[in-house]
Amino acid sequence: MDRAETGRRGERAAALYYIRRGCTLLEHNYCIRGGEIDLILRDPAGVIIICEVKTRTDPDAVCRPAASVTLAKRRRIVRTAAWYLQQTGQQEAFTRFDVAEVTPLDSGRWMVHIIKSAFDASAR
């Protein structure tokens, strides 16, 4: 399995994790010229969840997958989210920025760890 396929499977695993907890998937790989968001969801309370998914195949890696979400990446995500919310008329909605750390297990299943509110919109 190549890196891109591993990433796609990790995104699907993270989306399924949220869906199983009552969230609705609004967008998958939402792209505009200045950025991309892996998952956009709405939780049962109406909160819009902007999720960056980081999939790593080595569970023993020195740094956590979330560490690769740099300030520049967070800024792009926040700008893209602002565009999405404006275009969909949801700019007043409460928004949360999560990072999902996803690792494949030997059993063919996926370990998903969600870091809720990993960063906020001040990353502009």
UniProtKB/TrEMBL annotation:
Q: Which domain of life is it from?
A: Bacteria
Q: Which CDD domains match?
A: PoNe_Nuclease
Q: Give the InterPro entries listed for this entry.
A: Restrct_endonuc-II-like (IPR011335), tRNA_endonuc-like_dom_sf (IPR011856), UPF0102_YraN-like (IPR003509)
Gene3D superfamilies assigned to the protein according to its UniProt record, in alphabetical order: 3.40.1350.10
Q: What's a single GO MF annotation on this record?
A: nucleic acid binding
Signal peptide (from-to):
none
Query: According to its UniProt record, what is one Pfam family this protein matches?
Result: UPF0102
List, alphabetically, the PANTHER family matched. Answer: UPF0102 PROTEIN YRAN (PTHR34039)
Task: Please report which protein family the annotation says this sequence is part of.
Answer: Belongs to the UPF0102 family.
Q: What protein name does the entry list?
A: UPF0102 protein H9703_08265
Originating species: Candidatus Faecalibacterium faecigallinarum
